[in-house]
Every structure is written in C-alpha cells, then in structure tokens.
Amino acid sequence: MSEKYPIGEFHFKDEITSDLISAWLAELEDLPRLLQDAVRDLDNEQLDTPYRFGGWTIRQVIHHLADSHMNAYIRCKLALTEENPVIKPYEEGKWAEQPDYKLPIESSLSLLQALHKRWVALLRNLSPVELEKTFIHPDSGVISVGKNIGIYAWHGNHHLAHITSLCKRKNW
Hints:
Elements: H1 18-39, H2 44-47, H3 58-81, H4 92-95, H5 106-124, H6 128-131, E1 134-137, E2 141-144, H7 145-170
Antiparallel strand pairs: 1-2
Helix pairs in contact: 1-5, 1-7, 3-5, 3-7
C-alpha cells in the first residue's frame, strides 16, 4: 500500500452478491461517524496539512467527500429514473481549489451525515433489477448502481485512510 492508495485501488468483483451489497452499505452508513471520529480533535493547522506530498489537505479531503458523494447519489437517482443516462463528470481538482473548500469542515461533515442517511435508505430498498440499472460515465463507461455502491464504499474508506494514516504518521 502507498500514501496515495492506503487501502489499495478499487478492484471490482465480477459478481455482486447480496452479501457484498450489504457489506458495502454498512461501510457507507458508517463513513460519516468514522470521519467525525477521525477529525474530532484536529485543529486548523492539522486540517490544513496535506495527507501526502502533493496531495490534498484533510480539509480538502472532507469537502471533496461531500461533493463526490453528492454526485454519486445523484448518479444513482438518474440511473434509477432514466434509461442509461450519460452523467456529467466534474473536475475534482478544480473543485478543491474553490473558496468553499476553505470553510470549516463541519458543514461537509453534516452534509455527509444527512446524505448518507438518505442514500443508504434508498439503496437498501432496491431490488436486484434496480441494482443492475446503469448510467454511462464518459470516461469510465457503463456503471451499474450495484457497482457504484462498491466504488463509493471504497472511495469513502480510501479517503478515511488518508486521514487516519496521516494522523498515525504524525502521532496526532
């Protein structure tokens, strides 16, 4: 593992089982609390420390998670309500340079708490047919709702590990 990929890269499993979906949903459900626990005692200087050389600060990571997971939620809704929609990607690096990424992290932590509550409630009630519905990402191709659950369970854990690994390295 590396500082860039502390839990490794996402590897998609060929078969998405109900047990796998349940595990991923538990990870999505737990993420807001785990993030809150990870950053609870950090001061502004620590929040503005990059997790690796050339990487985002903890503050940027928290705001990125809110932006990214909002996009993922909307992508799920689009896939469930439209026929194989083409979604619009966004420039996450440029988003991380916007003024709102300098705000205190509480707004994004609160947003993630509320978003994940709704998102997991939606996803837990999907049928196997709904989990197979898809959207098209211009760069990544066709992605099913089920696969997207796995991608974002990994994504949340990936960035959580950026934070917890930095805290461990710095003895915070």
